[in-house]
Amino acid sequence: MTSPTSDVVGSNCRFCGSPLEQSFCDLGMSPLANSYLVADQLNDPEVFYPLHAYVCSSCFLVQLAEFTSADSIFSDYAYFSSYSQSWLEHASTYARSVIGRFGLDGSSSVVEIASNDGYLLQNFVDAGIPCLGIEPAKNVAVVAEERGINTRVGFFGESLAGELAADGIQADLVIGNNVLAHVPDLNDFVTGLSQLLAPGGVITMEFPHLLELIEKNQFDTIYHEHFSYFSLLTVMRVFASHGLRLFDVERLSTHGGSLRIYACHAENGGHLTAPRVHELIQVERAAALDDLAGYRAYTERVKRTKRALVKFLVNARDNGLTVAAYGAPAKGNTLLNYCGVRDDLLDYTVDRSPHKQGHFLPGTHLPIYAPDHVRQTRPDYLLILPWNLRDEVIEDMSYIRDWGGRFVVPVPELAVID
């Protein structure tokens, strides 16, 4: 294992520029969460980076340092959105909602940033609405193009927004699902949003909600690909500083608890601010998300979860029981590396994505198989790493009960499910 020597101490907030001094959660050293390995890489040196989140004492943005470029993380990406049925259904429901709410039709323009394999924009294509995907990962963009989704390869920001404007492209709807947290230069990105948005247009963004991360102990959603972690209070400040006004917000169940925000140009008076914006602001203030006191006690909860998982796995091994994992999500790699879990405690993992099968998890080097491997090996326990999809996984893998197998969910607290 090799590691850089610097940490975020001495750095400044990526939004407001204030010095970063207050620790939020220190998860030790970890490799990039999506840096899956092939067999001939297992004996090569592997780079581990500090996985230490800090909270800005001025704007309360929770954030990691940028130890490696976004290009090195996202230009060739292992995550394809189309392999989760519940996520596809979420995308379809969203598309129907915004098409109806904002009257989108064949004369409208929709642009999605970080459009992945076209799983979401396909719904707009099917509705006859012109759309463009912007996707930094070339290997993923190829899949979208094969589906008939017009896709531009690149990292979005002020520069690319200027290129689109020069091509006469402005969007009536700008979509960004689970991309805002992945942006190292936050101000450049939101400036680009403002430039891309048509005068009467709407932006919707989805991202994990910091309040849920804290209250439900979702520390494994912290990984290097996620540079920032947002409350509504902070994201409103970020958007307002670039001439964008949040007029609505929804609390979603996706990814363990997310926000979907709706924004427009500040001078656009056509969208009244919904009462639920003010209601959620009050909820966050009650949780002290506008005070450092709301952040200081988090690390101890994380340590308790680590001890519980390691104790369970050790006891299972000592009693001659076998444990396998389901899923190869980024959050799972954070969890396993932080807890120091290797093949002495966990045999393997399985994943539905063929792009991950045959690879190995970063850091832990656990092999990734197709889900049928569970049926062949009949483990006593199946540890669900994408706990946000627990119901979907339990339904798909319910056959493990035929041999007395049980499910284990590590977050927010360790639970064994018959």
From TrEMBL:
The UniProt record lists the keyword Signal: no
Domain annotation C-methyltransferase: ranges: 254-412
GO MF annotations in UniProt: methyltransferase activity
Key words, A-Z: Methyltransferase, Transferase
Biological processes annotated in GO: methylation
InterPro entries per record: Methyltransf_Zn-bd_dom_put, Methyltransf_Zn-bd_dom_put_sf, MeTrfase_14, SAM-dependent_MTases_sf
Lineage top rank: taxon: Bacteria
PANTHER family (UniProt xref): BLL5978 PROTEIN, TRANS-ACONITATE 2-METHYLTRANSFERASE-RELATED
Protein known as: Class I SAM-dependent methyltransferase
